[in-house]
Amino acid sequence: MSTSLTVPDLAKGLESFGDSYNALDVFADDVYEVQLLKQGKLPKGWTQLAKGAFQISVGEETYYARLFDTEGVVRFSRSSDLPNNDNIAQGAILGGLAGAAIGAASSKKGEGLVGGLLLGLLVGAVLGGQLPNEPEAHRVFTLRFDPENRSWRTYNGALVRWMKSELAAA
Amino acid sequence: MAQLEAASATEPVHASNVRETESIVDRARRRYVLQRARYERTASVVAGQLAAALRQQAIPHLLSFRAKHPDNFAGKVLLKRRRGKYAELGEDLNETVKDLAGVRIVVYDPADESRVADVIRNTFKVADGPAAQVNFALPPYDARTDQTEYKATHVIVVAPQGGEYATIDGACCEVQVCNMAAHVFNEIEHDIRYKLHDAEPTQRTKDALERLRLGCRDLEKAATAVLKAHQRDIRDQSTELLDPEDLRRGLELVADRQLRGDFDTLFKLLGPIMTPLSVTALLHGTGLTVSELLVAGSKRMPPAEGQQWQADDAILLAIGLMDAYGGAVMRVALDWEGSQPQLVQAIITLRPRVPSERP
Prior knowledge:
The complex is a heterodimer of chains A (170) and B (359). With 170 residues, chain A is α+β, with helices and mostly antiparallel strands. Chain A is built from four helices and eight strands, in the order αβαββββαβββα.
């Protein structure tokens, strides 16, 4: 039983609510394919679009992944929101980027804060439009992954506020 | 077996009666010592259930409980008998002395006193008789007549019965409710008057008590002002609500009235579904006011038949929010771990009726 998230798991999480949410943010160190990126390998079905941005084929569906190395987060989404450069990282740079993301994620989680939990944050539309001089509020949904059943459930525990802050920072 | 102790309540108190009273008091004290464990458990059970209920309603408070100390019991019996009361002390001391088990609830916000009194009445059966519920801040209690400015609400409740509560069957417990500022005055003033029995305090003490009373009154106003300012911050800002109390207070300010219900569970239902969770974001997502949400919730209530729960503001708000957040709120409810609060059950009963969530 893999205790890491895989792309099919991420796709399943994103599709949990139909079109209500655009993206699923997870910690980079929880994702198997990011571990492969750290080794400088491009996972099967992945196409690099720009530095830290990838197109992913899952069956007949197309998804996108974006690596936020400073925040330690991977955003898995249906749409591509590419950074404003077409710099494609190769080999060692790609590995460094993924390594940085994994390190940042581990650092955020600290010593035992999350335990073995695999957390995810579905991100949706802005609520009610942007209010003047106020930060945007978004629909989100806090999830945790059950590696035994390979399914996502609501996460409603003590880390809700923390994970909304740490995962939604991307 | 203790015998019924009776004395005429109208007999004047003279030397020989004083000796008789004291001996009766000593015997009553010894009898109370044997029964005290029952009242310790009563107070503990009542306190535990109230603590849970108050947390659910998101009412911040300090709670303490006790069984009356035997010396204090003896002192009270002596004082009352000298005033011609407590003529009979039967086998069940609780029939005469109602505060053998006591719970005190001190609220931060004076406005929460009445709310807590409602929680008490909804959680327990209230004892019979007009003396079972007393608000000392209201008539017929007159500060000038009773020479005290004691401010609190007292409710005498009947302990839960049967099953695990068999040992406290029939026991009652006095629950006192006051705010923090009043508590300071109440405790000091009561302590002084209790020690003096029926004697008058000196003018010096009276003057000092009056200064304390005025100081506590100002403290009460200042506490109310601080809480009100914080409540406005919650309403006006878009920062994350930190706890169920923030949620309740923020919505109350917008609704301009007190809201009742399980805001603890409502907060846990809403926490996972938006960021930041603020009153502003919550309402903007629906396009409705709090009052409109309550109306929407009441319109979508399922039929009363077979309903296991009673609608309160928190339940109506949760149901009213379903149009805007239905899929997400339902998912949180369905994934609820542990026993399901009534609010969660209410949402789940609506499952077939939820319209598709707005994009």
